[in-house]
Design a protein that fits this description.
This protein is of the alpha/beta class and 652 residues long. The protein is built from 15 helices and 34 strands. Strands 18-19-21-20-22-23-26-34 form an 8-stranded mixed beta sheet, with helices on both faces.
Length: 652
């Protein structure tokens, strides 16, 4: 047996995939074939035949009537992609997204409008199909197939903000500030309806009522209060006015302050060796107060904070670093802050570490010769900083660092629930992943993820310890040679708890996501891994995930006699991957997903304290250079708590 060296007795691949025909596949195929025949026979000339309607239960909420439901931008994208698949003359979603990004790059919030007449299966046709699936009565081909369909309408408005990411999840779409510049561009209006040559009337929810909005002209709106707003558009048409409503949120949050210095960084070293590739990045410098509590005019005592996975804008990076006013507290302690970011935050840890090393060298060239640096970071940023210091020490490069710190850093690896990885990647391989969730596949498959994740799922290969993780751990250990960060004093801060049995952590077999659309779109996700009593061996199998999509049934099971520990329920910094999966399934339009357990362990307590993590439940007694709470529950990954901040500032 090819064993995992970090978990003796556990094979590298310890899960099996199950791909079987849906028990309802024959009836589903007949229904689909009947639909396809209508397209080929031209039974709906000039219109759209929405072939996915049998799985979409919410589409009738957006029919253009005055009581239409408000729509989030993710759902707009998912429905548009489905309409586009039924009407190839529409531009593909990727092309639409590039148009959105072009307007966003000008500081505008683009409004996208879709207005379609389409055909869908009648309720009677759907009832016949479901009866045939239940075995009540077979579904025979009708004498007049056109009677299976009815005409309907779809009218939807989306207000689009750029996507922002934190680890493997999308941050909420919220506009910073109460002043917003909207635009209704001609290249974001999609319709097969005959529209009148009149401006669209839009009520932006600012209390000023509706106003006529011309195409391609920016409209400035100032909201009086933060919160969620509804934007209502009334579209004139030959068949009468049609209404579409978008959801849009604004906050009081301000953009990050303008840095006192900005450094453009290019690494001095290539990675891999011989590749010729030198990574790039940017460092943002904020001066602190001097001993007279007057803001400095040059760099003197910098604290370098490395950005984490998958990379952030300055606004988001500053907000993360300034939790509980930490940036101001560092300034009060007479420290400057240097925020180090990377052009590709999902790249090799080593590449970005060389960018961090360049920031160290740049800082040393600007501070007095007697002064030293403090280096560290949160999440993967701490691992990047650690590798940079180890490399500089091993290669006799000056770094003059007096202290290293990390906040919930995955020193021994991190965990994204295998059931989540399976759902996302399997749906993608089947062509059924909502377009709104597509970027998550790239994040999960990135080099940075492979180097960080303890368990990795690949379609057709099951779940295994990624070789990139093992190689990175070995390379870092060889660089350090037992002297962490080259012998610099090191401090580890964790979001995990040392409580004997953390509360709010899922036990193995706990149902985390229950997706119930209909008989051709449903599934479940469970906590991964098993914690068995000592000496107990079970043949399994242990389910991790299961789903039915269209004509297939799919699943992922642990099948080995001695299963791995239940890492999803281990103590450690948590993240809401299951909640994000449920939200994405809800935005897909295929039924609804319940989410009894939102969070799982992301960075195990032992990993964040740089302790052996082969048993993530092994008791921990923190050393003097470690901080972990004894509270009943772990806290969210990289979320700064007051005791954590006090510990960090106390080190200074």
């Amino acid at each position: 047996m090819n064993e995992d060296q970090n978990n003796p007795g556990v094979p590298v691949n310890f899960c099996e995939e199950i791909d079987t025909p849906n028990t309802h596949s024959e009836q589903t195929q007949l229904f689909t074939d009947t639909i396809t025949a209508q397209v080929q026979q031209g039974s709906t000339p000039g219109r759209i035949l929405y072939t996915a309607e049998y799985g979409h239960l919410q589409l009738n909420k957006f029919d253009g009537e005055i009581e239409a439901a408000p729509m989030k931008q993710g759902l707009w994208a998912n429905y548009y992609a489905n309409f586009q698949s039924a009407a190839p003359n529409l531009p593909e979603w990727n092309a639409v997204n590039k148009r959105l990004e072009a307007h966003q790059s000008r500081g505008l919030v683009p409004l996208a409008l879709a207005d379609f007449s389409y055909h869908k299966p009648t309720r009677r046709a759907l009832a016949r199909w479901r009866r045939s699936i239940r075995g009540v009565a077979p579904m025979a081909a009708p004498a007049n197939p056109a009677e299976l369909f009815e005409e309907s309408s779809y009218c939807a408005l989306g207000a689009f903000l750029p996507d922002r990411w934190e680890t493997f999840g999308r941050l909420p779409h919220v506009h910073r500030g109460l002043k917003v510049r909207f635009i209704l561009p001609a290249d974001l209006i999609f319709s097969n309806m005959q529209a009148k040559a009149e401006p669209v009337s839009i009520d932006f929810g600012d209390g000023l009522g509706a106003r006529k909005v011309a195409l391609d002209e920016a409209v400035e709106v100032v909201y009086g209060t933060p919160g969620e707003k509804t934007i209502t558009a009334v579209i004139p048409a030959d068949t009468g006015e049609r209404t579409a409503i978008a959801v849009f949120a604004v906050s009081m949050a301000s953009p990050a302050p303008t840095p006192d210095e900005t450094w453009t960084l290019t690494a001095d070293f290539e990675y891999p060796v011989g590749s010729g590739f030198k990574a790039k990045g940017v460092a943002y410098v904020y001066y602190g107060l001097d001993s007279n509590n007057v803001k400095r005019t040059s760099l003197a005592q910098p604290v370098l904070i490395g950005d984490g996975f998958p990379g952030h804008s300055l606004d988001d990076l500053y907000e993360l670093a300034n939790q509980l006013g930490t940036m101001g507290a560092l300034s009060q302690h007479h420290y400057d802050v240097v925020l180090v970011s990377y052009s590709v935050g999902t790249d090799y840890i080593q590449r970005n570490a060389f960018v961090y090393a360049k920031a160290i060298s740049t800082a040393l060239g600007k501070i007095p010769a007697a002064n030293q640096l403090i280096c560290g970071g949160a999440s993967m940023g701490g691992l990047i900083a650690r590798y940079a210091l180890a490399y500089m020490h091993a290669n006799s490069l000056p770094n003059r660092t007096k202290m290293y710190f990390s906040l919930d850093t995955p020193h021994r690896g991190a965990n994204i629930a295998s059931s989540v990885q399976y759902f996302v990647k399997k749906l993608d391989s089947l062509g059924k992943l909502p377009v709104d969730a597509a970027p998550i596949v790239d994040l999960l498959n990135s080099m940075g993820a492979r180097q960080m994740l303890v368990y990795f799922y690949a379609v057709g290969q099951g779940v295994f310890r990624p070789p990139e993780y093992t190689a990175f751990q070995a390379e870092l250990a060889a660089l350090e040679g037992g002297a962490l960060c080259g012998g610099v004093p090191v401090y580890f801060i964790s979001n995990g708890t040392i409580a004997a049995q953390p509360s709010q952590q899922p036990a193995y077999g706990s149902l985390a996501v229950d997706w119930h659309g209909n008989c051709c779109a449903n599934g479940s996700a469970w906590a991964f891994g098993v914690t068995l009593p000592p000496g107990v061996v079970s043949a399994g199998p242990y389910p991790v995930a299961a789903m039915t999509i269209g004509t297939g049934a799919y699943g992922l099971n642990i099948t080995i006699p001695v299963p791995p520990p239940n890492i999803d329920g281990a103590p450690g910094g948590t993240r809401s991957s299951w909640a994000e999966l449920a939200a994405s399934l809800n935005l897909s339009g295929y039924g609804t997903a319940d989410n009894p357990i939102p969070d799982h362990c992301f960075v195990p307590l032992r990993s964040s304290l740089n302790l052996d993590n082969s048993d993530p439940y092994a008791p921990v007694t923190p050393a003097s250079n470690m901080y972990a709470s004894s509270d009943a529950a772990s806290t969210g990954h990289a979320v700064m708590t007051a005791p954590m901040q006090a510990y960090l500032l106390g080190l200074l």
